[in-house]
Design brief:
The protein is an alpha+beta fold and 287 residues long. The strands form four sheets. It has a four-stranded antiparallel β-sheet with strand order 5-6-7-8. A two-stranded antiparallel ribbon has the order 1-2.
């Protein structure tokens, strides 16, 4: 006789997704606002494969642009991350890599054109190696400038998404400077507007990264006071803080993959080795 289930119980529950792997976060679980991460005693978090709905979300252009699809998929596949908008940006690539491994497997094909001969080839990268590289890094959250001690944090994913505006303004400044159809007067006016906006965005990102500034027995955590100080501080202070933040950002960036070219391609004029940038976007995320 068929098995009888309790009223309302779904007999398909036992066929639901199960964790495919466990992820160690590069942040080590730090920098999450309260309630944003269900902390694990082991430091490892279950990762599930994408559902059909998740995959469709990742293919929706508008949702990709504003980051909402990424948030929805992370929430679905790594449920311990309760508020993905609040996750430290240094955990983002690790989360996406883990989700891809859980869904499609440990290897990912990367297509590129071979230098000098301009012929396209595909190379395989081991995503497990990329994950272990990210986890081995340590975020340095302290900067010393003279008698000041500055504590910083990585940007959240929401702040990181907003920082795309900075790239947009940089592109706009470049376009304006090279627009031959615009008068010099109009070009200068528009350039000044864009440059001012770019400056505000850049300073805003630095201020958002600073948790506190300590001098003697005083510890300043007020956001407006920190912003006021940054805007009036010596250039040396600003440059040192900016340099440290950029170094931490680069530390958690995925390194390019070094590949060895086939002898046949080398004979055609290709280099024996070259590097391929590794990115996670629509063109290569899906299996």
């Amino acid at each position: 006789m068929p098995e009888i289930t309790a009223p309302g119980a779904n007999p398909l529950t036992k066929y639901y997704r199960q964790p495919k792997l466990y992820l160690s976060l590069p942040s080590k679980g730090k920098f999450y606002p309260e309630g944003s991460l269900e902390q694990s005693e082991t430091g490892e978090y279950p990762v599930y494969s994408m559902t059909a709905k998740d995959e469709l979300a990742f293919k929706t252009p508008d949702a990709l642009i504003n980051g909402q699809s990424t948030v929805d998929v992370i929430h679905s596949c790594i449920p311990s991350i309760k508020e993905p908008w609040n996750m430290p940006s240094l955990d983002l690539d690790a989360a996406l890599i883990a989700i891809r491994i859980a869904t499609y497997g440990e290897n990912m094909g990367v297509s590129t054109k071979i230098p000098n001969i301009n012929e396209e080839r595909e190379f395989q990268t081991d995503l497990r190696h990329l994950l272990s590289e990210l986890y081995s890094k340590e975020f340095d959250d302290t900067i010393y400038v003279d008698d000041l001690t500055i504590k910083i944090r990585p940007l959240t994913y929401k702040e990181f998404t907003r920082s795309a505006l900075k790239t947009f303004e940089e592109q706009r400044v470049f376009t304006l400077a090279n627009d031959e159809n615009m008068s010099e007067e109009e070009k200068i006016d528009r350039f000044n507007v864009s440059f001012k906006k770019l400056t505000e965005l850049t300073v805003g990102m630095i201020v958002s990264s600073i948790v506190s500034i300590e001098v003697g027995e005083d510890i300043v955590t007020n956001h407006h006071q920190i912003k006021e100080f940054i805007e009036n501080a010596d250039k040396k202070f600003y440059e040192k803080v900016t340099k440290h933040i950029e170094e931490q950002k680069k530390k958690f960036a995925i390194k390019p993959m070094l590949v060895h070219t086939d002898p046949e391609d080398v004979a055609k004029g290709a280099p024996e080795t070259f590097e391929i940038p590794i990115t996670f976007d629509q063109s290569n995320f899906f299996g």
